[in-house]
Specification:
Distance between the termini: 32 Å
CATH architecture of the largest domain: 3-Layer(aba) Sandwich
CATH class of the largest domain: Alpha Beta
Strand content: 25-35%
Largest sheet: 4 strands, parallel
Number of domains: 2
Number of strands: 7
Shape: globular
Helix content: 25-40%
Oligomer: single chain
Structural class: alpha/beta
Length: 146
């Protein structure tokens, strides 16, 4: 895992902070030692190791963080946080887990009526447990030339 930091919303952070400290192994060791940045207006004293609360202008703080962290910053779980990052052109690559289920309703990552954004397909994983990992890089507002 090439990521150097986690960027989380409060709810995801609280779930991770409860689950990961008791786990062991290479992946758990990586998660438990990476710095965590938590976008929250309510969390004041994060207890999971190396956690920093981002208060105020999240987009400005993340833009600064991208300049300071010399590797990928991994965002897990929070649609509101990801939408903020998308709206401020702070997403370099999407790594999506695609499940073969149609929900019909719920929170949308990409809203209706938004301008189209074109992506460059970067690759996919081998299907495991009917879950597909898809990697795609942001390509801007113009379609790629063929």
């Amino acid at each position: 895992m090439a990521s150097a930091a986690l960027l989380l919303g409060r709810v995801t952070y609280e779930g991770f902070a409860e689950a990961w400290p008791s786990r062991t192994g290479e992946f758990a060791d990586k998660f438990n030692t990476m710095p965590n940045y938590v976008a929250s207006t309510t969390l004041k004293d994060p207890e999971w190791n190396d956690s920093t609360v981002i208060e105020g202008d999240v987009a400005k703080a993340v833009a600064k963080l991208k300049q300071e962290v010399d590797a990928d910053i991994l965002v897990n779980g929070n649609v509101q946080l990801v939408k903020t990052l998308i709206d401020h052109d702070l997403v370099d690559e999407y790594r999506l887990m695609v499940f073969p289920v149609e929900l019909g309703r719920g929170k949308r990552l990409f809203g209706e009526g938004e301008s189209p954004v074109f992506w460059t397909f970067s690759g996919t994983s081998e299907p495991r447990l009917r879950t597909q990992w898809v990697r795609s890089s942001w390509g801007g507002q113009n379609p790629p030339s063929t």
